[in-house]
Fold DUF4868 domain-containing protein.
Amino acid sequence: MEQALIKLSQYTGAPAVTILLSTHRTFPDNKQDSIHLKNLITTVEKQLYEQYEKRTVWPVLNKIRELESTINHDYNLDTLAIFASGDFIEVYRLPIATTDRYVVGDRFEIRPLLKAIQQSEHYFILSVSRHLIRLLEAFNDKILYEVKNADFPYHNSFYTTDPMRLQQDLVMDNLLKEFFNTADKRFKKYYEENPLPVVLLGEERNLVFYQEQMDIKGLVVGTHHGSFDDTSDPEIAKITFPLIQQHIAGKQDTALQAISSAQSAQRLLVDLNDIYTAAENGQADTLYLEQTYLPVGHIDNGTISLSNGNGSTDITLPVIDTVLNKGGNVVFLDENALNEYQGIALVTRF
């Protein structure tokens, strides 16, 4: 989705149509989604004909109508996002809530994609026990797959049948640590190919031992205690998703700390024109905005003027696009999180 975001942020040209539809995941509510989409497209059609000539509207509208007929609403999430122009059309199902709306202009409304990326997490799950270690890959509340090959599931071969040694705790602990150390080296190969955060499942003592054996520290973003050798994918997802939600929520605290540190280092801009100029010059590292920050106005010769008059547009879209196209990052924070900075702040590269 990150590549799609960059592609959409780079597009400029009229008409660029963004359609955002609030959808439903389950039957029978999702049966109404097709009706609501049709009504929204009808409104978009009227708006297009009011703003542009027919021969300009037809290619865009034809693409939207063709796409509408192919959408299977049985697979809807929380939002359906459609991006259409005379050159191409894209559709995305997003796991974030929205209100039904559309934007017709010379840029796409990419904030829903940004928010979806920031409110989602792709991660590994390691189920750890004395006898077996399982490796799974997940996205939010869905298990994508469990690794089943020569590496995992990994069965413990570090054991002894000597009754005297079985009674020695130190011997058993050393054998367990050797098992965990070998398992971690197997996992490390997968992490280096795809460096994702990790959720650990298992008995508390086993998790302590396992984390001691991990070569790469700081990967674990959540743990849950219990036995999961035979637990099904859906049941595991029910356990891990709340942990991932807590991890995502913690990112806001990290962002606020980064802003504070940048301010101390004199690398923080809060004036909208200063932010836009820095972005144009490639100096933007990370742009932070409140989700409800939506100033309107004009940009003339590189200068932003805020106003609500005729022709005023959402100023944040060109600012966001510029930051992304110059290799910067954009992070949305909760409402009122940036009160001290009037809703927006930019950390510069130097």
Residues 1-120 form a domain with the Translation, Eukaryotic Peptide Chain Release Factor Subunit 1; Chain A fold (CATH 3.30.960.10).
